[in-house]
Every structure is written in structure tokens, then in C-alpha cells.
Amino acid sequence: MAIMTALALPGCMRTSGPVAVAQPQGDLDSMAYGAAHAPAAAAVADSGGGAIGALRSAFAAAPRGSDAPLSVAYPEPVPLRYDAAYHLDAGDRLRVVVYGQEGLTNTYAIDAGGSITMPLIGTVPARGRSPAGLAAEIGARLRKGYIRDPSVAVEIEAYRPFFILGEVAAPGQYPYVPNITVESAVAIAGGFAPRARRDRVTVTHTDASGSGRFMVPLGTSLSPGDTVLVGERWF
């Protein structure tokens, strides 16, 4: 019996040895570095993104002092719109909102005659008007026996197309995009043809003052309804 007891005792000591050492190691860490810290593995598991997730978690938990990097947000560029001074014409598509009147709020296209047609008030001339001017006209017509105090807003949902002709791969009609240049228009039309003149083009522009043709460089901005003519070089 004494021999069996002597043999079992060392085995128990060997089994409990690592467990007894683990606790003092944590106490030493506390004495050397202060309060115990969460294991790094927990940060990685909570981040949900491996090493990159762990860095994000550490950055979020770190105190932000005066020397800490600031997060800078860069807004997306907003395209220039011509709604305020823009003169409407055939091909423009408008969103007309009459507040509180779902039956009147809709998208309306300006027809070839330069007008839109709405319920109750019928045909309303739009050509040459600004969106604000058209909204005022619609409100005035609704006020005459239909709605006591209408509130109307008009915005441009899609501009009328532009046209590109001459020495390009695919001449024709294309949807207008705000801030488009002549060079971009040529790219949309498939690029220059082999014999195209590549330095200047002719643009026909029409506005309230009339129509005119202008020789312009490729960086010139286009307006809705403009016609671009790419000429042929002679050498």
C-alpha cells in the first residue's frame, strides 16, 4: 500500500503543475503592467475581419487626442444643373409635383409643339419657360376653379438630347448629361473617324436669343439640344 501511494503522488503533482503555474503568471502581468488586458485573440474574434478587423477595433478603442488622425470625408462631385436659368424645350422630361394632389403629380414630356398636357388644366405651353416659370403658370391655372391654394414644383428629370454629326464613328442623337464637353460627346459617339479634324468642331446652339453656329475647341461645354459637327481634315 505504501508503495502504491508513493507512485500515485508524483503523478498527481505532475498533473496539477501547469494549472498551479497559470495563475501566478497572470498576477505577474498585473503587477508589471497594471490591470489585466483582454487577450489579443478576443479582439480578432470580435472584429470579424481578421488582421484588418483587429486594427479597426484597436483604432476605434484607442483614445483620440489632439495628435490622432482625423477622418476626412470627400463628397462626391455634384454635376452642375441648369434648372434655375434653363429654358425648356421639346424633348425635356419634367417632374411636376402638386403637393397633396397625387392625381396631378407625374412625369410629363414636352412634346414637339413645346407643351405639356396635364389633367384638369389641359395643355400648358412650356417652351422658352424656366422650370420656376412653368410651375407658376401651372399654379395659376389650377387656382382658377380647381385648387384653392396650389403648391407646385417643377424639376428637370431628363434633358433633351444633343446631336453629333460628321466625322465620328457613330453619329446620331444621344442623351444629354450635365457638364458634358465636346470631347466627351465625341467619345460617346465612338470617337473620331480617321479623316476627322481633331482640334476644333462646329457647335450649333439655340437659346432665347436665337440660334448660332460657333467654331469651338474640344473642351467646350455643351448644352441640351446642341448639335456638334465634326469636320473633315484635308491633309
The major sheet is characterized as: 5 strands, mixed
Helix content: 25-40%
Q: Determine the oligomeric state from the structure.
A: single chain
Radius of gyration: 37 Å
And the CATH topology of the domain at 162-230? Outer membrane lipoprotein wza fold like
CATH homologous superfamily of the domain at 162-230? Outer membrane lipoprotein wza domain like
Spatial shape: elongated
Q: What is the count of DSSP helices, taking H or I runs of 4+ residues?
A: 5
Quote the average pLDDT. Answer: 75
CATH class of the domain at 162-230: Alpha Beta
Number of strands: 10
CATH architecture of the domain at 162-230: Roll
Order of helices and strands: HHHEEEEHEEEHEEE
Q: Per DSSP, what share of the residues sits in E-state strands of 2 or more residues?
A: 15-25%
Structural class comes to alpha+beta
Return residue spans where pLDDT drops below 50 for at least 5 consecutive residues.
1-82
Cα end-to-end separation: 116 Å
Strand order of the largest sheet: 7-6-10-8-9
